Structures are given as structure tokens and as C-alpha cells.
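new request in #modeling-help
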Amino acid sequence: MDFSYNEIQAMLDDSVEKFIANDYDFDTRQKYAASERGFSPEVWQTFAELGWTSVPFSDEDGGFGGGPADLMVLMLRFGKGLVVEPYLANIVLAGGILRRAASNEQKARWLHPIIAGELQSALAYAEPQSRYDIADVRTTASADGDGWVISGSKGVVFNGGNAELLIVSARTAGKQNDEDGITLFAIPADSDGLSIRSYPTVDGQQAAEISLDNVAVDAASVIGEPGKGFAVLDATIDDATLAVCAEAVGIMQIMTDKTVEYSKDRMQFGVPIGSFQALQHRMVDMFTDCEQSYSLLLWATMLTGQGDAGAKRAISSIKYQVGSVGRKVGQEAVQIHGGMGVSWEVDIAHYFKRLTTIDQVFGNADWHLDRLAG
Amino acid sequence: MDVTLSAEDLAFREEIRAVFRDEFPEDIRRKREKGVPMEREDLVRFQQWLHEKGWAGVNWPVEYGGTGWTPVQKYIFATEMAEADAPPIVPFGLSMVGPVIYTFGNEEQKKRFLPDILASKVWWCQGYSEPGAGSDLASLKTRADLAGDHYVLNGTKTWTTLGQHADWIFLLARTSTDVARRQEGISFLLVDMKTPGVTVTPIITIEGDHEVNEVHFEDVKVPVENLVGEEGKGWTYGKVLLQHERANIAGVAISKYRLRKLRKQTTKSVRGATPLCEDRNFMRKLAAVEVDLRALEYTELRTLAAVQSGKAPGPESSILKVKGTEVQQAIDTLYLEASGYYALPYVQEQYTLDRDPADWVGEGAETQTSLKYFNYRKASIYGGSNEIQKNIIAKHVLGL
């Protein structure tokens, strides 16, 4: 039994920590978030050069051969650094589909440039009506000669406005909520009939509404087997869920640390507010919630890494945890920071927003608790 | 990172599991199954059975007859013991005073007391709290005044669990008032309950049982050789004792066993009724407690893994008591809610070995759920209330 990082994980952890300390302070992050594309292309290149974009991919795919634990190490740090670069969209979501289901030709065409940091991509899986059901797909793809014609709407596509390549789930058979009959397509963002409405999200990131109006693609655009896209999508969303949980735990930890430090400095009534028992016990609860969440994260990450049959429930457990307990930690951090906690110029406010949006995606706390109750 | 057990640990688990399955005293097993309360004799016999197996001193070093087990082996043992639905080990001798004696006692005391503690031949109880000293333990008033070769002990201890069965009591008493800090001048004494001047009066707790007592000392003569360690250093020894208590303090193994049993129970339909698992609200609450318990289990394992690899446990260990008791009480609440109307009947006398469960009021032992719920409100109060634990974490972990 061992809960420590191995040598490679320790190096990875160290390199991200140093990068954030030296090159990615809060003001810099804010500048990147407010820039035209909503992230820094230079920083993204640095991620590729340092090998971070290759972490979850196998050696054959030109990757680092890492597993969920390695990804966890990165995401914990990205959470603490409040990183806005589209790692989740490119590497975990679009990359996750490609590494699982793409042919070698498709990987050479799309995955390798993604890993090299040269191609921006996005996975368009959610639809305006689908909420957390990834099988709820109204977008249709009809066979047309050798190719396909796709029509429909995709909602809140992370990195959708920046993406040059979109991976889109579309229905090629079955009813609106059937798991069978979903097919995954790789579509260049400049295809005819595609319109992309890009916008910032409240957490400083970027997303887009995408509509497809008779977009024609060739047979080589199908990723994996036609009609069998659900399993690929489902496994990829599980990965992404676990990844944002690690990000959330990183955010919870740093919000707790910053709150404790703030309470030692902030003087009221002639004493530091951290000397008040009413606040001390609340900060102890925040600390406890962080430790418990980190424990669950380790458990879920290890089960996923072992391909354990219980991994899906474990992922639901940690997502429920960071959704429910994370909300409490975030709200307490803001409350104890007082007016500073709701000020745009103070980092706590922005950690709080990211932590809040993490609960809104890939199934919220209620949704995952329901899965566990059954 | 790796959570799998080694081949040796797996073999160890099989060995423990087989002994609990094949050799566990049958009548105690039947009493546990039927919810019959454990009597003094049952608990003693169970612990003597553990001693026969060499398992009584779970946390003790080998030189004093302990198991010498690794932290992971202790964890496995606790799990198997819970899975066998064995009664809990009475902590006062084996987990509390034993470690204080082998850590701070002199050779004479070790020889005199340790073998009987290990063999459960002597029943110990604890004298810490007083009517005026609960969370503020250092304000204790019990006095031990030196008079030649003995101390004269006067005062009252309270909440003394199972003191009615005890042969000996270990206690903290003030031996000096001329001190800079209130924590000084307190000594750790061992007292024979048969000494003239010792009287025990019962306190009946909320569920109606006689579990705790007041113990009164009136001019009780305690020989100086019953002082453990140095006079005036008792507070330090008492704190070490609380650290020993930390092993399995979270009660994870028992909570896991109880929660799994409850989930299984919810699928049973009684007299054609809709089973409880169809009640979405209840099942969501159950699932939430399961998540909390799983997190606690891994927090405890992180602590064990640190100790196993020779490191000091990290700050995560400080939350075990608070979180462990919160989870225990949440499980008690779920059991209570699962019982519906049958949480009401107060029919403890029906739980005897010779009575057929078919004649009981209520299905299974469900009328006991409310009593356990009431009784276990104590868990967040004893051993340093959870608020005191939070004060300690705020000061020593968060540096506030």
C-alpha cells in the first residue's frame, strides 16, 4: 500500500508547480483569460514542449504512456494555478476519443498535431436539451453516397471557438436517448454548413454553440465503428470527470490554504479574525473536506488505473464529493474573505467560479448521487 | 500509488479470516446474531480467546507479548474482526493503561500489571472526567496528597464506562497546586477498586442502560508504588494514551460492516411490502454516507501507509476522530430511519438466546436501532468532544 507519487509523477508535479510559480501568476492568468482566444498560444506551446500534452497517450501514439494517476498530478496543479489553457478540451476530451477509437491514419492526421500543440480541437457531445445524458443526441448523420450529411445543434462546446477540428457525436440510428446508433465524426471547423458562436464562460474559459446544417463529410471522417460511438464517448467522459475532480480538489486545497492565511493577517477588533473560534471551526471543516476529497480522489484514480469494475462508481463518488463538499468549501472561503471574496481583482473569487462550474459539468452532485443510490 | 495488498498481507488476511470463521466461540456468535447484549463474562471470554490466539495485544510491542503487526496488518485484523461481527475489545486495559505502563511504568509495574491486562484477567476502568471537569480536563479537582508511603485520594470521577465491572482504575489526580500551568501537578495513579473508601454509583444513560458510573474516593490510601512515571507528569502520559487510542479510532471497519448490512437489508421485502430500496430519498442518504465512509477509509489508509513507511502520520490523521464519529452517528441515524414505527417499542428484555426471533416485537433486532441511536450520541462527546478536536486541529494543524 502506497499513496506517494513515483519518481516520474514527482518530477511532473515539480515541473508544473515551478511553471506556475514562475510564469503563471494570477495577473498573468487574468491577462490570458481576457485575451482574444482566451488562452495563451505561447503557453500552450510550452505545455507541448514540456511533454504535458502527451501525458495520457501511449508510446505508439507518440505519448508519454501515462495513466489516470499521472493526469491527476497535472490536473491538481492546474487547479491550483487556475490554468485556462484548453487542456481538458484538447487532451482529455478530443484526444481521449482519438486515442481510443481512431485509425492509425486518423491519429497521424489529427492526434499527433494535437500532442504537438499545433492543432486546436474540441469534443461536441452535449446538446441544448441533453443535460447530463450523453446518449441524448438529436443531431443526425445520414449516409450520402460514400459520405455523410450531418445536421443539428451542439451546446457549450469547450474550446469550440478555438478549435480547428471538431469531434461531433451524431445519431445514425435509433431514438433520441438510445445508446446504440451514435457515431463520432471528425469535422474541420471551416466546413460548409457549420456555424460557431463562440463566447467566454463565467470561469474565465471559452466555449461555443455550434450548429450544423447539412454538413457533408467523407467516410474517412468516421471515428471508430458507425453506431458504436457511445462506449467511446462514455469512457472519455469518465476520464474527463475524473480529471476535473482532480482540478477541483486542487482548487479546494488552495482556497483553504489561502483562507487560513488570510485569517491570520486580517485584523478586526484589534485581533486577527483567525483567532475567532466561530471561524476556526469552519476552517477546520474546510480542511477536513479537502483531506476527505483528496482521499476519495486517490481511491477513484487508482481503481480507474487498474481498470477495476468499480471504477465508474468510484468516479461518481468523487464527482458527488467535489460537487457537494466543494460548494461548501468555496462558499466558506468567500465568506471568510469578506468583501475581498467577491472582488474581481482577488483570486479567491475566480477559484470560486471555476469550482462552481465544475459541479455543473459531466453530471452534478445530485446526478452522481442518484447513480450511487441505485 | 498502489492500493493492492501484498501476497503476505493477503495470506495474513486468510489466516485471520479462517480462525474467526472456524474457531470463534459459538455462543458469543449466536448472541451477537440475535442482538443479545454482551455481559461482562462474554466480553472477558472473547478477549481471553483473543489472548489464546496471541492477538490480544494488537498494538503492543512483541517484548510485552504484543503482536508486533504492521499498521496494514492491524487494519486487516480490525476489518476481519468487524466482518465476523465480533464484540469490540474493551479498551481500558488493552488499549489505554497497558501502553501507558509499558511506555512510562517501571519494571516492577510492568511485571505486576501487563500479563494480567494481556490475558484479560483484570478489568480496568478509566478515571479522567469529573463532575466539574469535562472538556476542560485540566481543571480536575481530585486530589492525591502524599502521606509517607502512600497518597490519600479524595474526589469524584464520572462517566466511568463499565466501572461497575472493574477491578482496577487508572486515574488522573492533582498532586500539587503550586504550578505555573494547570496541566502540571497532575499525576497518573493506579488504584485497586477494592481499597476502602472507593464507591461506585451507577448513572443510567438515555437508552436506559447502566453503562457508566460515578466513582467516589474518600480518604483512599494508594501506595506510592502505584504512581506511574514521575509525579506531576500525568498530563503528558494521558496525552500519549489518547494517541494510542488513535489506532482504529475512526471505527472504519465496523462502520463498513454495518453500512453494507443495511444496504443488503433494504432489498428485503417484509410481508409483501415495497422494499426500502425503492425509497429514493432514503437510498440517496445511504449513498451519501457510503461516500463519506469511503473517503474516511482512505484517509485512514493514508495515515497507515505513512506510518508503515516510517514517516510520521500527516495532518490527515487529526480528522479521524471527528469524521469517524460523524459517520458512525450518520449510520445510526439511517438504521433508526429504516425502522419506521418499530423504532418505538422499548422491549430490550426480548433479546435473549432462548427466545425465538419469530416472537420478537419488530423484524430482526430493529427495535434496538433507536437505543443505539440515542446511546451513540455519546460518540461526538467522549474522548475529547468534537469541538475540542477542532480546537486542536485549528491550533496544531492550521496554526491558528
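bot summary: The beta strands of chain B are 124-127, 143-147, 150-157, 168-174, 186-192, 198-204, 210-223, 227-228.
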